[in-house]
Amino acid sequence: MKTQLTRLSKVISGHTFFTFSAFFAALFIYSSIASAALPRECRKYASSAVKQQKENKRYRCGHWGFEWHTNYRNHYSWCLGTSIWNARKHEGIRAAKLRKCKYKKRVSAYKSAFCSNYARKAIAQNRQNSSRRCKYFGSNWHNNFGIHYNWCKGNSKKKVRQHTSWRARKLSACNLRKGAYARKLRYCRSYALAAIRHNKENLRYRCRFGGTRWHNNYGVHFNWCKGQSYKTSKSHQDGRIRSLRYCRNKGRLASSKRAFCRKYAARAVQQHRVNVRNHCQHRGVEWHSNYKIHYNWCLKNSRNRANRHNNWRNKKLNRWCRRR
């Protein structure tokens, strides 16, 4: 019984080995047939390889070697001599290199446009610097397109944008300074003209104000104003206005006083003539016909006192002269 079982197991194991051997042999033959490149696949491969080489030249990628050429027959022959997997691998490698090259070219083209725009903007900013007389200078302020362009190509976009923003801030600060300076110049021109006008009023009203604030020199007033604050120059101008207002008021009072004294002196002379004509015999410093003395006395005394003198003389003339 045992002998029969042993023989049966040997037979089965022999059949199994033969079966497995046949299977692996068939698999090897099938894989060899499947991996061999067919003419139809190789035609596609060769066309694709020629097209990839043309793209390599058009985009100036600079790839070279036995894989990069436009000879269709050589690509086709090489494909027939190798497996389809190897041919597809080479085609994929070329496609990956072309994708990388195209990306770099797109990035380079964008960077070129970006740097051209940067260089033009930098030149425009420097022209504004010159036209507005901001007096900025250095490696960032010039009109050389090539230097700006090459500097941009060698630096990151962030740094390039920072330089553009920095120049813009500088120009804005310059505009503010120039605007404030222009406003100060306008103010100082009006200040100098007002100072000259005030001095002319000083001379016309004979106020006799003098000193560094009272003259007709436009340049001196203008330059002094430029070196002072708004507050100081405004206080000087207001001081002149107050002085002239006081002088005008004083002049008006003096003119009215002179008119009053002229009337007083004429009245006093007339009263003395009445005194002489009617033989009233009133004597003293108040009874004479000197107009100038009466006038000067009136100017030195108040109006009330001058009126009292006039009234006193009238009473003397009305009472005592009528009795006689």
Instruction: Describe the global form.
Output: rod-shaped
| First and last CA, distance | 204 Å
**Unreliable runs:** 23-35
Number of helices: 10
Number of domains: 3
Largest sheet entry: none
Mean pLDDT: 83
Radius of gyration: 58 Å
- The sequence of SSEs as H and E is HHHHHHHHHH
Number of E-state strands: 0
Structural classification: mainly alpha
Q: How large a portion of the residues is in β-strands, by DSSP E?
A: under 5%
Helix content: over 70%
Topology summary:
Blueprint: H1 2-35, H2 39-58, H3 72-80, H4 84-131, H5 145-153, H6 157-204, H7 218-226, H8 230-277, H9 291-300, H10 303-323
Helix pairs in contact: 2-3, 2-4, 4-5, 4-6, 6-7, 6-8, 8-9, 8-10
Structure description:
Helix 4 crosses helix 5. It contains 10 helices and no strands. Helices cover 79% and strands 0% of the residues. The chain starts with a helix and ends with a helix. It is rod-shaped. It is an all-alpha fold and 324 residues long. It has 3 domains: 2-107, no CATH class; 108-179; 229-323.
Question: Descriptors for this entry?
Answer:
single chain; 324 residues; mainly alpha; 10 helices; 79% helix
What's this model, at a glance?
With 324 residues, the protein is an all-alpha fold.
